[in-house]
């Protein structure tokens, strides 16, 4: 073998390992670039998902950070020996598009965080408040600020007034003090009647709102009774005792009774608890108007009419408390209570007249009073997933204290105690069903 061939063979054997190392380095660099691209794509997808209200993956962030750091380090296997002194150091260049992607991710992160903070100031569906952790299951409210959204409210009332029935005629055998009752007294009073509420709610802050609500209720009741001749007479129970005569005893009698009230409430509502139970406090002012009209007519040869008109107008402060408790699904249970102190005046009039003798008795009453009103409502409700529509139904009880009612007023006129110390005082109660529809926006 010649010297030239021996030298060529040795040179070839020395170059083979270097070529193999170069191929391995290119392969590792290619895999690192692919990994970096995939991590950037996954990171971008994670950030976009954040806009869809999903949690950002910290593992993807760390992966992207490791990839970015690795792209700035020498590739493993490309040689560990130091380069010659003074010579250039050759590192794999970072891809410009990867650097731009990382910068875009940082900008996107700041933008998403800003939008998240702005959205959670009011009624975000992510978790209720910035930094809160979403919760599931009964008793857990993720959207704790929904109650203070602006809304339109409509309610249907079906109430029955109590302590308002008035006995107006009793069948009697005989006339005057010797007369004996021979049957049950006829009563006149209102029964269950419909009413309504209409309201508006204005959002103020993340935990407060203002509302204005108008309530209207009107009831009407009537009754009549007739006795055939020879079976006694109907005693006119509501005429003044000093006008009783043979002419006041009747064979037929009829009565009608109307009872109406109206409320106007303007109140401030704030959240005082956001735990398992949502608790809201309301404070405001109420205007109340109350009217009760009664008419009775007794007929035999002629007719005698008795009428009573009672009215009240008052205004005063109102405090209320509302409690909600989530149940399975979209159902919830609620309890609403309130108390008002109405300062106003009662005006009451009594008139008795006869077709032959004209006016027989006239009495008037004007009395300034404080009328406490308490209300309690308990029921269940349902709301859709976005809390833009809610429906609830429950049982309502409202009590009016220190009022003047038809029965107590006429009794005081008949026995002469109308202007006695303490005056006329009675309790009026309304109870029945309530159905509520609320549209939030």
What does it look like?
This protein is α+β, with helices and mostly antiparallel strands. It has 2 domains: 11-72 and 98-119; 146-440, OPCA outer membrane adhesin/invasin (Lipocalin). It has helices spanning 3-51, 58-71, 96-119, 406-415, and strands spanning 151-162, 166-173, 180-181, 186-188, 193-205, 208-226, 233-236, 252-274, 277-299, 303-326, 331-354, 358-383, 389-403, 426-440. The strands form 2 sheets. A 10-stranded antiparallel barrel has the order 1-5-6-8-9-10-11-12-13-14. Strands 2, 3, 4 and 7 form a 4-stranded antiparallel β-sheet that branches. Strand 9 (277-299) and strand 10 (303-326) form a beta hairpin. The longest helix has 49 residues, at 3-51.
Strand order of the largest sheet: 1-5-6-8-9-10-11-12-13-14
Sketch the major β-sheet. 10 strands, antiparallel, barrel
- Report the portion of residues in β strands: over 45%
Question: Helix/strand/pairing class, anyone?
Answer: alpha+beta
Shape: elongated
Distance, first to last CA: 97 Å
- Work out the number of β strands: 14
CATH homologous superfamily grouping of the largest domain: OPCA outer membrane adhesin/invasin
Q: What descriptive keywords fit this protein?
A:
elongated, 22% helix, 48% strand, single chain, 10-stranded antiparallel barrel, Lipocalin, 4-stranded antiparallel sheet, 441 residues, 4 helices, alpha+beta, 2 domains
List the helices and strands and how they pair.
Layout: H1 3-51, H2 58-71, H3 96-119, E1 151-162, E2 166-173, E3 180-181, E4 186-188, E5 193-205, E6 208-226, E7 233-236, E8 252-274, E9 277-299, E10 303-326, E11 331-354, E12 358-383, E13 389-403, H4 406-415, E14 426-440
Antiparallel strand pairs: 1-5, 1-14, 2-3, 2-4, 2-7, 5-6, 6-8, 8-9, 9-10, 10-11, 11-12, 12-13, 13-14
